[in-house]
From TrEMBL:
Organism from which the protein derives: Streptomyces himastatinicus ATCC 53653
Lineage: Bacteria, Bacillati, Actinomycetota, Actinomycetes, Kitasatosporales
Source organism, top-level taxon: Bacteria
Protein known as: Butyryl-CoA dehydrogenase
InterPro entries found in the cross-reference section: Acyl-CoA_dehydrogenase, AcylCo_DH-like_C, AcylCo_DH/oxidase_C, Rhodanese-like_dom
UniProt keyword annotation of NAD present: no
Regions annotated as coiled coil: none
């Protein structure tokens, strides 16, 4: 997936990434967990996922059919809203990972008053906390996707996973900006990742709204 993504410019179509990586056929027979793994990689490259979401919605609506070679940009079916939300949550995890990796590289290379930035306690703590938050969000997404694959969806799990993932991506984006400082405002890669993280609130919804939805669903079934 990562090798295939390098052949498509950042922000390019996620469907093209899948085709370059040769995994479209495999995903057609895969479960939601496998799709979430692929979406994390697409998020790490900030690739557009519109066609990928449409592909997943097509398979949900037409089980057992062959995945088309080309996908339209139609919106995902309403009936698969939670499954689609988990794809977007996995994408958010990938984007957060890209922000964190860029922040780690910057902190390792940047020298401030004779010491690498990562050697300062404040920076190392921020990176560690963001890494832990990212790992927990990824597990939350996988957990929810696994239950979806088993035909035992947990009503509140999808919005909870999305809330955790979007919040984590924003945390990692802030960590990235703090690592770069003022230099980040003129770095196109930093700006792209930062804007991508905030665009997740339109893709998935705000963390506050997602957590509220998860809480309401949990109370309704408790």
């Amino acid at each position: 997936m990562r090798k295939g993504g390098s052949a498509v410019p950042p922000g390019g179509s996620g469907w093209e990434v899948l085709r370059h990586a040769g995994v479209t056929a495999a995903l057609a027979d895969g479960g939601l967990v496998e799709w979430c793994l692929a979406l994390e990689e697409l998020g790490a490259g900030c690739h557009d996922i519109t066609a990928v979401r449409a592909g997943r919605a097509f398979l949900d609506a037409h089980p057992g059919e062959r995945l088309p070679d080309a996908m339209t940009t139609a919106a995902p079916a309403v009936a698969t809203a939670d499954r689609d939300l988990l794809l977007c949550a996995a994408y958010a995890v990938g984007l957060g990972r890209a922000c964190l990796e860029a922040a780690q590289n910057r902190a390792a290379d940047r020298v401030i008053t004779g010491r690498r930035q990562i050697e300062y306690q404040g920076t190392s703590h921020r990176l560690a906390e963001a890494a832990l938050e990212l790992a927990l969000a990824r597990i939350t997404v996988w957990h929810a996707a696994w239950y979806e694959d088993q035909g035992r969806p947990d009503g509140h799990a999808a919005p909870a996973a999305a809330g955790a993932s979007v919040e984590t991506a924003l945390t990692c984006a802030h960590t990235l900006v703090q690592a770069y400082g003022a230099a980040g405002t003129s770095d196109p890669d930093v700006v792209r990742l930062y804007r991508g993280a905030y665009a997740l609130t339109q893709l998935c919804g705000s963390p506050r709204g997602l957590w509220q939805t998860a809480g309401e669903r949990w109370l309704a079934t408790a």
